[in-house]
Every structure is written in structure tokens, then in C-alpha cells.
User: Fold this.
Amino acid sequence: MKVVGIVAEYNPFHNGHEYLIKKAKELVGDPRALVLVVMSGPFTQRGEVALLPKHVRAKQALSCGANIVLELPFTFACAPSERFAFGAVELLYRTGIVTDIAFGIDSENYGLIEKLSSVDFDSNEKYVEALKANLENGMSFPSARANAIASVFDWDNKDELLDTLHSSNSILALDYLRAIKKLK
Assistant:
């Protein structure tokens, strides 16, 4: 039996979230598939208080096709995307039952995100220096990171790279893939 992991905040739960749950079950090709959601608690990744209490958001997910909802610990839930993604993917992995992970992206260029996920940014000195300089120049972390990646690594289309890395779901998709690779 397949068990699909989904990381979410459901702040608030909407039709797109319900669609992802249904599509994830469909894509794994197992009509008995279960969906295990790792959801942030009272605070979102951006450090804001969630619009609805966690138990209400969990109940919404359960009524729309999720089978199990686990809370992502605060230390990951309110962290930058890399830590948020790693904590959530590790939690899914450590359950010992998750066979697949589903997530949405804001870009049609999944191939670029997948290619980026194989790059070890953190051990590249030029990337680390560019990231630090961008942050010192007042860029937000997501923009600083995207610009550092674009300036240091050789990509065919830097504009496409920057567009892809400026959307929150695509940034998370990159970090989910990096976490999956790190944990295997």
C-alpha cells in the first residue's frame, strides 16, 4: 500500500490543497493509498500566527481526503525554507511508512528545479560569498539565494532561473528535493 506524504500549512485550507491530495492519490496508482500530512502548528513558516487553529486546519484536511495529520515541530515550522523542508521531509521519512512525497510548484519548469536540487550550494565558496553579499545589500533571503545561484552557477537561461526561484512553492519544491536527496 502506498502512503503519500504532503507538507502543508493549510493557512487556510483551499481547493488547491484538496486537489493536491486527490491528485497525489491518483498519481501513485494505488486506490487504497493513504495521505499523511505534516502541517505547521499555530505559527506559519513566515512566523505569523495561522488564520485558524491547527485542529481546525487538520480537520479540514481530514475531511478532504487526508488520512493522518502530524504537526511539524515549531523549530522547523517557523524556519527558512531549507530547514522547514528538511524537518518536514525527515519527519515523513522517520515515520517509516511514507512511500511517496507530493508537492506543488509554481513553475512549469520542474526539470530546472530537479537539476538545481543536485547542486551542493553550501560547500561552494563563491555561492556562500555571493549570498552573504546579497544579504548585506538588503535583499530578502529568497532573492539573495536566487541571485547567488544565478551568479555563481552556469545556467542557460538566468532569467528563467530567477523567475523559478522567486515563487514560494518552487523554492520549497527545490528544498524538498534537496532534503530527499540528503536523507537517502
